[in-house]
Automatic annotation (TrEMBL):
Residues 8-224 form the 3-beta hydroxysteroid dehydrogenase/isomerase domain. This is C-3 sterol dehydrogenase. GO terms for molecular function: oxidoreductase activity, acting on the CH-OH group of donors, NAD or NADP as acceptor. Keywords: Oxidoreductase. The keyword Oxidoreductase applies. It comes from the Eukaryota.
Length: 243
């Protein structure tokens, strides 16, 4: 059901971000905007802000102009971009976004993290949940920066800004520009004569609209978490949490 909120999808021209935009529009949301470094979609009913997450000016301008109250943060560089870019976008960019959220009308932030934040290849994660600790050493630079971003988002959770992080594993479906292309190039390059593990390994893959739906559910649910206090009123927040 449509709400009266103003939604911004950061990374909304990407694979997952686009599905979130389409799902918001499909449920009748009237106020949807996108912040992305490149514009790949053109909808008359969506406002596109083109800018770099690593630029605090770009982020602040977009957030302020949009009047967003709810932000989905799905932006991240593609695998292979390198540590410097990962740090710029995932770490500095996420910090810029959180700062802008606190300094604006944004009240809820849902971050797309990754299952890679709790997996470094040393042991299988079977039937685990969010209580699982981060590994001492991350799988790679990409996941190291996803961990930093996720920690910032979770720590920012407060009466002023309700936050949540979702950790998808592999995502597949229409619009994917990375996974199937990667698998396909392996076949094209005749790189198929290898086996990973002992042929009993399991990996989770989730259909993209299910991941997008999870983001909308998380965003909606954040609104219910503290139903009794008014934002920016620490006294009633304390009362509500004690009740
Ligand atoms: P994607 O590359 O399709 O989308 C990311 C979007 O972010 C792109 O539109 C890109 O232009 C934008 N972006 C990148 N750098 C930016 C910058 N500096 N400023 C503004 N925008 C920028 O990726 P995706 O597959 O849709 O992934 C979305 C999120 O889901 C990412 O955070 C990723 O870590 C996470 N994730 C993806 C998978 C997967 O299998 N695809 C699995 C787990 C987690």
């Amino acid at each position: 059901m449509a709400t009266n909120e103003a939604y911004m999808v950061v990374g909304g021209c990407g694979f997952l971000g686009r599905h979130i935009v389409e799902m918001l529009l499909a449920r009748g949301e009237q106020n949807v905007s996108v912040f992305d470094i490149v514009q790949r979609h053109f909808d008359s009913n969506v406002t596109f802000y083109i800018g770099d997450l690593a630029s605090s000016e770009d982020v602040t301008n977009a957030i302020k102009k949009s009047g967003a109250t709810c932000v989905f943060h799905t932006a991240s560089p593609a695998h292979g971009a390198g540590r410097t870019i990962y740090e710029l976008v995932n770490v500095s960019g996420t910090r810029n976004l959180i700062d802008s959220c606190f300094d604006s009308t944004v009240r809820r932030l849902v971050y797309t993290s990754s299952a890679g934040t709790v997996y470094n290849g040393e042991k299988d994660n079977i039937n685990v949940d969010e209580r699982l600790d981060y590994p001492a050493v991350a799988l790679d630079a990409y996941n190291e920066t996803k961990v930093s971003a996720e920690k910032m988002v979770i720590r920012a959770n407060s009466p002023e800004l309700l936050t949540c992080a979702i950790r998808p594993s592999g995502i597949f479906g229409p619009g994917d520009r990375q996974m199937i292309t990667g698998f396909y190039s392996v076949v094209l390059n005749n790189q198929t004569k290898f086996q990973i593990g002992d042929n009993t390994n399991l990996a989770d893959f989730t259909y993209v609209t299910n991941v997008a739906h999870a983001h909308l559910l998380a965003m909606d649910k954040l609104a219910d978490v503290y139903p009794y206090f008014s934002f920016r009123d620490p006294i009633s927040y304390v009362d509500a949490s004690m009740g």
